[in-house]
Amino acid sequence: MVWDPQQYLKFSGHRLRPAVDLLMRIPDFAPRAIADLGAGAGNVTKLIKERWPDATVTGVEGSAEMVAAGRKAAPDVEWSHEDLGHWRPARQYDLIYSNAALHWLPDHAALFPSVMAKVTPGGMLAVQMPRNFLAPSHVLIGETALNGPWRSKVEHLVTPPPVEGPAFYHDLLAPLSQNVDIWETEYLQVLEGDNPVKEWTKGTWLTRYLDILQGGEKAAFEAAYGERVAKAYPKNAAGQTLFPFRRLFMVAQRKG
C-alpha cells in the first residue's frame, strides 16, 4: 500500500482519540525504551515522547511517506523504516505501543505472543485495533469489489475480518501476563463534508483496493463504493454524518 498522510489525517481528531484513550490507560511507570509499532505520521509518537521524555522512543513504520511526515512531527524520536511483518528487533522494550496497526498483519495467534516476547519482564504491551469490519463502511467495499468488471483484480482482498473478539486476545495474553485489561469502545463519530465515510475509508481500508486499479477503473470503483456507502450513512437534519466505529483495546503487563 502507498499511504497518503494527508488523506489519513483528514480525520486526525477522530483517529487520535482512541490513541490517546489507550495511552492514558497505561499505568504510570518509568520505561527506558519504547517502541511505537505502526507509528504512522508521528502524531501519536510525539505524545508518547511527551509523556516519557527521558525514554528512548522508536517509531517503527513501513511507509516511507509516513516516516517522512513522522520525522517532521516528532524529530526527537528515532525512526525505523521497516515493514511490521519483518520487525525483528535485537532488543526488548519496556513498552510496546501500537495504535491501529497490527490488524494489517496475519496470524494473530502467533503474532501477539511474538510481540509480547519483545517486552521486558514487567513491561507493558498496549494495543488498539479497529473492529469495525462487519459495519457497512467495510462490508460495502467487499460488495463493490465482487460486483464489477474489476472483480478478478481485487477479489483476493475480500477476506474475513482480521481482528478477533476480546476473548481470543485474552486467551493469548493471559498466560504471559501479570495483568491483562481488554475492552471495546464504539465511538459515535460525527463527520462533516461530502460522503465523509468514503473519505475515511479511503485513508485506510479502501486504499488496498484503489492501489491495485488504474485510471478510469480506479475512479469507477471509488464512485461505485461511494454511492453505496453514502446510502448506508445518510446525512442527518444538520447535514452531518453519524459514523459509529468500534475499536478493541488491550493493555497487558508481561510476567516478571
UniProtKB/TrEMBL annotation:
Residues 34-123 form the Methyltransferase domain. CDD domains: AdoMet_MTases. One of its GO terms (molecular function) is trans-aconitate 2-methyltransferase activity. The keyword Transferase applies. Keywords: Methyltransferase, Transferase. One of its GO terms (biological process) is methylation. SUPFAM superfamilies: S-adenosyl-L-methionine-dependent methyltransferases. The keyword Transferase applies. Its EC number is 2.1.1.144. Pfam families: Methyltransf_25. It is an enzyme of class 2 (transferase). This is Trans-aconitate 2-methyltransferase. The lineage of its organism: Bacteria, Pseudomonadati, Pseudomonadota, Alphaproteobacteria, Hyphomicrobiales.
